[in-house]
Amino acid sequence: MVDYGQRVVINGVHVSLHPAGHVLGSAQVRIEHRGEVWVVSGDYKLDPDPTCDPFEPLRCHTFISECTFGLPVYRWPSAASVAAELQQLRRRAAADGYALLLGAYALGKAQRVLAMLGEAAGAVALHGAVERITAAYRDGGIALPPTHAVAEFPRSHDWAGTLVIAPPSALTGPWARRFGAAPRVLASGWMTVRGTRRRRSVDAGLVLSDHADWPGLRNAIDATGAQRVLLTHGHTGPLVRTLRQSGIDADTLRTEYGGEDGSEEPAELSDTQPAQPDRAGTQP
């Protein structure tokens, strides 16, 4: 274990970890040698999130930044508006006698949704993968509203009005059949883009991401004071051009990793218009 900010010396190089604001325990890596400082961001976000330490801007000469949502179209709504929209979708499902199935990453996003809802969470049931990580968050001192595991209930259980949180991949698999025609909702930054809900076969989308949006990327980079920025993972081209216009030495850094974890798909460059309201009038 290494605490945030604790320096470790490796062959004369000072290495330390600092909060990235992505999920619980996520970290940036600061590397210093002979006065030269580089920071590798990993995944990060600047939006407030009570389930993890906030992103810490680090002054450096070179900043290696993720760029998952590196297009100006990606601008996240407030957490309060996302929570209100989720509750509205839930009430509609309850009125029809159904649960609401929410697809959210088991690590980080599911717990963030619970924290956003807080005391207003109501009846919440979790897929086994989400339940295990939520228990780890609670063990780590993160306050979350009460939940139950889906496995605690018989398949004949009346799920009306229950919010069921599961990994996105579970929404269309055999596990979800017990909920019948319950509406499926996906929480993802990709929901900003028109057509993504159709490709993912969900009934509605919530724009919620644990990555920085376009303004967040710009603000994070500005806060580092770095004169050299290397961008990875995402639509790097537009941000490289923008940074160069600001006098920053920016470029794309090719890496050997690709998609986030296979449960979300990259947005298509040819399809970057904001999503339109769905049939129920919901604006994700």
Describe this structure as you would to a colleague.
This protein has 284 residues and is of the alpha/beta class. It folds into 2 domains: 8-74 and 210-252, Metallo-beta-lactamase, Chain A (4-Layer Sandwich); 79-206, Rossmann fold. The chain is built from 6 helices and 13 strands. The protein has helices at 79-95, 109-117, 128-139, 196-200, 214-224, 236-245, and strands at residues 8-10, 13-19, 27-33, 36-40, 62-67, 100-103, 124-126, 148-149, 163-166, 184-187, 204-206, 228-234, 249-252. It is globular and about 65 Å long.
Q: What are the salient characteristics of this protein?
A:
284 residues; 2 domains; 13 strands; 6 helices; alpha/beta; seven-stranded mixed sheet; disordered C terminus; six-stranded parallel sheet; Metallo-beta-lactamase, Chain A; Rossmann fold
